[in-house]
Amino acid sequence: MEIKIQKNTALSQFCTYRTGGKALYFAPATDWQGVFHLREFAKKQKIPYMILGGGSNVLFPDEGYPGLVILNHIDRMEFHDGMVTVGSGAHLMKLLMTAMQHNLGGISALANVPGTVGGAIYGNAGIPGMWIGDVLAHASILPENENRPMIVTPDYFEFGYRTSKAKRTKDIILSGTIKLSPTPAIITRKEIDGYIKERAQKQPSGFCCGSFFKNPSEFPSAGWLIEQAGCKGMTMGGAQVSEKHANFFMNTGKATSTDILNLALRVHDAVKTKFDVNLEPEVQIIGNNPFKKNN
Predict the structure, then answer these.
(1) SS3 of 76, please?
(2) Spatial distance between the Cα atoms of 137 and 220, rounded to a whole number of angstroms
(3) pLDDT tens for each residue of 71-91
(4) pTM
(5) Catalytic amino acids?
(6) Is 68 in contact with 170 (CB distance < 8 Å)?
(7) 3-state secondary structure the chain
(8) 269 CB-near residues (< 8 Å, 6+ apart)
(9) Which among 123, 229, 108, 230 is positioned nearest to 176, based on CA atoms?
(10) What pLDDT does 293 receive?
(11) What pLDDT is stored for residue 205 in this prediction?
């Protein structure tokens, strides 16, 4: 199997923050065999590796990534028995729209959630009342020390709020089988449009990764805490706390990853001072993560 591995690839083009340095090595994979061979390449080179999906929940360091970034392009879909088995590299919106064409729905609440199916399973994406872990029948993974995929049930992932066991292992999510329900396309279309409109009213558009911090259970939301701490509109270099939604940190055009991290730290400290709450990042911070020292 021949896979073209690129060197010194700019990561900013693959991240919705549009920041970050270069990857030492970079390559796409379209099937599990490609993922396996790339992982083995990284192991032989004795360098770190990571899987990248839609780049909508990741912050790369300005100095880049000293290993191999595997861009997940596994996006095949197969509908069967009221379910769909979908590659982990498929975007959620593509899944919803394709299912709608088959008069299948039940997952419209995931509309406009950025990123891929694999990323959604990795972080148990969704909204209250609809998390992807709730509709996952099973998944295919490539365990860290195995050379063949294996099928696992939802219990394997130990899903929680914005988290799963996959965040603590080097298992690679290859596909997920999602439970759907028979729904006329016209109804699903209306539901999807409603969720998209609702999000557009509440959330800003631009270069960002959505909510930066997880919502603490004892308060209305992280955004509420940040606003009450007086951080709305706060800036750091080219990064700014959104005026529309305080838990969205925006790249106004010339921000660096360091700007975004420093802004997040400043917000974290302001909330800690006012409410004695340690906000936990939802965004996956690659490289040095200063929040591990604060929390």
Answers:
(1) coil
(2) 31
(3) 999 999 999 989 999 999 999
(4) 0.92
(5) 162, 211, 282
(6) no
(7) CCCCCEEEEECHHHCCCCCCCEEEEEEEECCHHHHHHHHHHHHHHCCCEEEECCCCCEECCCCCEEEEEEEECCCCEEEECCEEEEECCCEHHHHHHHHHHCCEECCHHHCCCCCEHHHHHHHCCEECCEEHHHHEEEEEEECCCCCCCEEECHHHHCCECCECHHHHCCCEEEEEEEECEECCHHHHHHHHHHHHHHHHHHCCCCECCCECECCCCCCCCHHHHHHHCCCCCCEECCEEECCCCCCEEEECCCCCHHHHHHHHHHHHHHHHHHHCCCCCECCEECCCCCHHHHC
(8) none
(9) 123
(10) 64
(11) 87
Q: Which residue, among 120, 93, 113, has the nearest Cα to 198 in the 3D structure?
A: 113
Rounded-to-10 torsion of CA 40, 167, 11, 85: 80
Outline where 50-204 has alpha helix (H).
Answer: 92-101, 117-123, 132-135, 154-157, 185-202
Write down the pLDDT at residue 230.
95
Q: What Å distances lie between residue 266 and 148, 163, 175, CA to CA?
A: 45, 24, 38
pLDDT at 1: 58
Show the tokens assigned to 243.
């005026």
Q: Token digits for 210? A: 């959505």
Structural domains of the chain ordered from first start: 6-72 (3.30.43.10), 77-202 (3.30.465.10), 222-290 (3.90.78.10)
Structure tokens at 47: 């360098």
Q: Which residue has the tokens 């998390």?
A: 131
Query: Rounded distance, CA 169 to CA 80, Å?
Result: 30
Low-confidence stretches of the chain (pLDDT < 50) are none
Sequence letter at residue 225: L
What is the token pair recorded at 229? Answer: 């701490």
Single-letter code of the amino acid located at 294? N
The DSSP bridge partners found for residue 68 are: 25, 49
For 290, other C-beta atoms within 10 Å of its C-beta total: 14
Identity of the amino acid at 79 = F
